[in-house]
């Protein structure tokens, strides 16, 4: 009997959460509207019905309260998985995440573990109002004590959420909301996934390396397709893990290609691209034919949605950057 | 045009002075008290407890030793052995009353001033000094004594307490009727923290889920330099009703009343009847910390007034007047306090400094390759100086 089926990212996450809850009865879900409604994006659809209100908990509308009580649950031996409804709503919980979730293990000299997963739908492109389209990953990657990952596709969604829940450290789990109900992919539940904190070459190439994660992986793959038709071979790496970074496949690739473009929806200034450019420059200085270029959002707040496509990095802007790396 | 006759200029809603009564500086009529500042035993219709002579002597001993811990640590700071110390002088009854009401299975979420509660829970007071000396950030295992790590961000621990209590509910250790099993959480915080969003969110979560948590607020009248009037326009204990659970104001300088009220609140929680709020009305007789200078913001008269309500003196008077102690008791206790002082002085100076490479440990449950690489690089850098001074 084949275990394969075609699923969306939303379905992959939902199936992954269900599997994690079946595997370990200490796993609890909590968030706003995650119960009967199944979450505003339906990621937790049907889970409260099957696992009960004690394990799938509709919370009061208070993000600091959600994260702070999750800390207490983790101290009691539970593995809370909490949903922040939208990226821009995480800031009321910022203190609890940065000062408590991230620091408890260090403060206790390893006597206390914080196996908390904070799921955040992130990124834009859904025509939303303010605070619903942001990319706050660098703020968390900059915080010692947190691990930060971003899935980009349905299969990774299924595996990565389970791996994050099984992990003993706090994980900020970023989900590209634009992709939730977009493309389908074949999931083989009997497969063995790669480790969580690893990056992956998703398209091999020889002329330049494009680094992406979350929503920009799809953009990068389209770029590679377009570039190929013009005779240029781009290698695309889905970073998957933002903290810690998995630099080995990145460095190996850039040493071969000599050129690198990083793209993310977050602001360029002090973003993930800045860290990647610095590390690549330190490690691959003599292999580089051009400086590492970054393509991301401008250093402006997220704009009104009617012009968001002029704000987000798209195929043309990434290809333009690739062209510029060849001009050096 | 004639105005309607009204005693108030503001006719919107009820008259708050009528609802809450006039402002009280002495705790007001709702203050639960079992032992007056003069050492007179009084009774309360709802919260009372028969204390044996041994229990009374025990509570006195606990308060004296707690004060000794505080005095020694303050002196250690003055001698440069601690970077800072958060003093509890004057709050011994609030902490011992609350601490002794706990059962072993109950869990404490402290601020950074709960030295007396830590002592009650069996944490070696020496372990408290590491944080203030700068050799660690809380040197005890929270699960060993069910006493959480000191939390410095004001009020953050009240949410941890609530989440922990929600975990207890899921573990089936609430409302079973088994006194060995039924458990509760106590969340400590101060009057300043009552303004924090986290504290108010903790109230809401605890009420919503009927979590077994006692919110224990030591209202010591001052949040560093800000008086209680800056935090609230109504007595703090009366806020609880607005969140949907009872609030009680107890004389926090009366160890008997604090014990009785906290014990009742914890029992209520253990039985599955949900959260409650205890406002221990007390006074910070010392500074906020050893870096603070209260002479800049409060009058000495106020301190002198509260000295008359000293939590230790009133129990001493009661014990003596009723012939429950003899000179031997005081001599023995004095010797014990001296031994505690010696333990803290010698132990503090012997606390080892962490090594430079220790800072890389415990960021995560297992060291990541990234941090290991930074550690190794720093180790090599340090090693490059070896022998260079010869």
UniProtKB/TrEMBL annotation, chain A:
Q: Which CDD domains match?
A: TPP_PYR_E1-PDHc-beta_like (cd07036)
State the Pfam families in the record.
Transket_pyr (PF02779), Transketolase_C (PF02780)
Its top-level enzyme class, in one word, is oxidoreductase
Which taxonomic lineage is given here?
Answer: Bacteria, Bacillati, Actinomycetota, Actinomycetes, Propionibacteriales
Query: What cofactor does its activity depend on?
Result: thiamine diphosphate
Q: What keywords are annotated for this sequence in UniProt?
A: Oxidoreductase, Pyruvate, Thiamine pyrophosphate
Keyword Signal part of the UniProt annotation: no
Q: Which InterPro entries match?
A: THDP-binding (IPR029061), Transketo_C/PFOR_II (IPR009014), Transketolase-like_Pyr-bd (IPR005475), Transketolase_C (IPR033248)
Tell me where in this chain the Transketolase-like pyrimidine-binding domain is found.
7-182
List the molecular function annotations (GO) for this entry: magnesium ion binding; pyruvate dehydrogenase (acetyl-transferring) activity
Look up the EC number in the record and give it: 1.2.4.1
* SMART domains the record matches: Transket_pyr
Identification of the protein by name: Pyruvate dehydrogenase E1 component beta subunit
Superkingdom to which the source organism belongs:
Bacteria
TrEMBL record, chain B:
The name this protein carries in UniProt is: Pyruvate dehydrogenase E1 component alpha subunit
Q: What GO MF terms are annotated?
A: magnesium ion binding; pyruvate dehydrogenase (acetyl-transferring) activity
Q: Which UniProt keywords apply?
A: Oxidoreductase, Pyruvate, Thiamine pyrophosphate
Stretches for region Disordered: 1-30
Q: What class of enzyme is it?
A: oxidoreductase
Instruction: State its Enzyme Commission number(s).
Output: 1.2.4.1
| InterPro entries tied to this protein | Alpha-ketoacid_DH_E1_comp, DH_E1, PdhA/BkdA, THDP-binding
Cross-referenced CDD domains, in alphabetical order? Answer: TPP_E1_PDC_ADC_BCADC (cd02000)
- Pfam families in the record: E1_dh (PF00676)
What Gene3D superfamilies would the database entry show? 3.40.50.970
For activity, the cofactor(s) needed are:
thiamine diphosphate
What stretch or stretches form a coiled coil here? none
Query: Which residue numbers delimit the Dehydrogenase E1 component domain?
Result: 61-340
**What Gene Ontology biological process does one annotation of this record name?**
branched-chain amino acid catabolic process
